[in-house]
Write a structure and sequence with these properties.
alpha+beta; 2 domains; seven-stranded antiparallel β-sheet; six-stranded antiparallel β-sheet; 16 helices; elongated
Length: 479
């Protein structure tokens, strides 16, 4: 999962992009980058947080009123510095591109571009494949000036070759800003406009920060081109089968900020509904805890609703060190375990001698859950029950969330009792897939739930997961 931003307007692009990337930092901590265009491209990217990669000197160098930015954590590839985005290619015109998502036919496309188009690759990042495919198609048109209809025709040919998830922003040097979203809408993309220009981002919070009020979702399969005169052109490149989208439901469970609105669904409101569904399920068991405590920060809304449904106290019993990164997207196991110890501390008065119902967004590998339960018991909890407002994770995500191998899931080939014992809980509750979809979409939206259900909305090449697992094993060995 990554965060992207694109701007074209009257202001210096970096003045919009830098604060927006800070707002999207929760979507990726591995690397950050910005490309801008004035009379030439300017690029700054590297591994680390936004505040680490950029300083006043290189921000001043990023001139131009059109630009794109990116924050990343690795899915395809091993997260080396050469995988940081955006990428720039010189032909035709000069194109800079950044991307959120994952191509499940990445390896095949890369091989085809190398052997058939004699293209050279500098990284293991799949945005480089999309960038080269677009370059190939545009070169066939021999257009000195961009004609939007011809640009969209070229892009349609690119779409036909891509399988997977993608939300993309790109600069066409001296021509304008291009953005597009995959036909299923797996990855989010929103657009805002004001009298100074247009801005696109992964989440609405970035546009809220910049003061945009006219914010819309880019539709699944839609492409948008904004030329240098700020004229907006848009078209529907492709549609999902039966016009059903498959937005990643994990955005609402964990990834997106609660103050974001994605595909007209408020993330905070979705988490309240998830808590209500989970609370009703727990109530049927007859469990009566003394207190409901959230694992900060994602689970707060759901935990409040669980407490309301059960008619018991809601309390903040875990305090988070805000200078520690999100543990889910840390690159290896040892760092995750250590960061949990650094990340949280307890308020003993809310825990000691009590039956605690702990609410979290999910259980992936089990490390965080196990550590937190142990922490509460060390602080004197009489009982610790654990409730996840998402279902058990069983299947690898192939669309850009860092859960790509079967062996990473604690729920894989384990019963509920075995998971409960593994994490040290006195009781364990999971949301059902049906309740998950009902709560988030209220029956009006369709989602990708593949990591829970195994129902992938696209074809997945047979060798893709094997290659990913081999890559992950090599990465673990090197780490």
């Amino acid at each position: 999962m990554c965060g992207i931003i694109g701007y074209i307007g009257e202001d210096q692009a970096i003045h919009r992009i830098y604060p927006a990337l800070m707002t999207l930092q929760h979507r990726g901590q591995d690397s950050a980058g910005v490309a801008t265009y004035g009379n030439e491209f300017h690029l700054k990217k590297g591994n680390g947080l936004v505040a680490t990669v950029f300083n006043s000197k290189n921000i001043e160098r990023l001139k131009g009123t059109i630009g794109i930015g990116h924050v990343r954590y690795p899915t395809v590839g091993m997260g080396h510095e050469e995988d940081a985005q955006p990428f720039i290619i010189t032909t035709p015109y000069g194109i800079a591109m950044a991307h959120n998502g994952n191509l499940v036919n990445y390896f095949d496309l890369k091989k085809q571009l190398i052997t058939q188009e004699l293209r050279y690759f500098n990284s293991n990042c799949d945005v480089e494949v999309i960038l080269n495919l677009l370059s190939v198609e545009l070169m066939k048109l021999h257009m000195q000036r961009i004609k939007p209809d011809m640009l969209f025709k070229a892009l349609a040919r690119v779409y036909k070759r891509l399988i997977g998830s993608y939300a993309v922003v790109a600069i066409l040097a001296g021509r304008g800003l291009l953005a597009f979203r995959d036909p299923l809408g797996i990855k989010p993309l929103v657009m805002g406009k004001d009298r100074h220009g247009h801005c696109l981002a992964s989440e609405s919070v970035a546009l809220d920060l910049l003061g945009y009020t006219d914010i819309i979702d880019v539709a699944p399969g839609q492409a948008i081109f904004i030329d240098m005169e700020h004229n907006l052109h848009r078209t529907q490149i492709a549609r999902a089968p039966k016009k059903k989208q498959a937005a990643c439901i994990f955005e609402y469970v964990y990834f997106a900020r609660p103050d974001s609105i994605i595909d007209t669904i408020g993330v905070y409101e979705a988490r309240l509904r998830l808590g209500r569904e989970l609370g009703m399920q727990i109530a049927q068991t007859g469990l009566r805890p003394d207190v409901v405590i959230p694992v900060p920060d994602t689970a707060r809304a759901s935990a409040q609703m669980v407490a309301e449904v059960l008619n018991v106290k809601y309390r903040e019993g875990l305090i988070k060190n805000r200078y520690i990164h999100r543990t889910f997207i840390m690159p290896n196991q040892a760092m995750r375990i250590e960061s949990v110890r650094l990340k949280l501390n307890t308020i003993r008065s809310e825990i000691a001698g009590k039956k605690v119902l702990l609410v979290d967004d999910s259980i992936v590998r089990g490390n965080t859950s196990r550590e937190i339960i142990a922490l509460l018991k060390k602080s004197g909890a009489r009982k610790v029950y654990f409730a996840s407002y998402s279902p058990p994770l069983h299947y690898p995500c192939v669309y850009g969330i860092d859960m790509q191998t079967r062996g990473e899931f604690i729920a894989r080939n384990r019963t509920l009792d075995q998971i409960r014992d593994d994490i040290g809980a006195d009781g364990l509750f999971y949301q059902t897939v049906e309740s998950l979809e009902k709560a988030v979409g209220q029956g009006t939206h369709s989602f990708c739930t593949a990591c829970f259900s195994g129902r992938y909305p696209t074809t997945v090449p047979a060798l893709f997961l094997e290659r990913i697992e081999a890559d992950r094993r090599m990465h673990t060995t090197l780490s």
